[in-house]
Design the sequence.
């Protein structure tokens, strides 16, 4: 979704609320298996001349545990906040630059989400994984491999 910010940059106190969904077929480039849309909710506002964007993303993913290979669906919720500037003259990675006084919120939300997403996925933090010898799921059964 493209958001035009001309008014937001010009009027102190101006704000815009955000509440929409990014559909799974728009997310196919992410490498994640979305089983729900990404619900983006928040606001963008001009407080004392500083334009800030804050939003949350909610979504459900089909994931596979890296240790035991169990498949499950999991809900995720992340919050993000950015300062939006009209030009890149202020050289700082923390700012989002609004090219032509607009931002593409889909791009921002998806890249934020991917940065936040853990590189390792576990069904739970205590997952015992699979036995490297016999392949049994050590969360559900015990084997004697380690005793030898
Ligand atoms: Zn697991
Ligand atoms: Zn075993």
Sequence:
């Amino acid at each position: 979704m493209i958001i035009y910010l001309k008014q937001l940059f010009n009027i102190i106190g101006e704000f815009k609320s955000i509440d929409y969904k990014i559909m799974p077929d728009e997310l196919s480039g992410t490498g994640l298996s979305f089983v729900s849309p990404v619900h983006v909710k928040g606001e963008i506002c001009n407080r004392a001349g500083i334009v800030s964007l804050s939003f949350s993303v909610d979504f459900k993913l089909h994931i596979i545990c890296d240790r035991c290979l169990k498949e499950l669906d999991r809900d995720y919720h992340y919050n993000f906040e950015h300062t939006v500037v009209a030009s890149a003259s202020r050289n700082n990675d923390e700012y989002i630059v609004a090219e032509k006084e607009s931002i593409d919120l889909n791009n921002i939300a998806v890249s934020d989400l991917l940065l936040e997403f853990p590189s390792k996925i576990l069904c739970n933090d205590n997952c015992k994984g699979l036995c490297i010898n016999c392949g049994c799921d050590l969360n559900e059964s015990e084997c004697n491999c380690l005793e030898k």
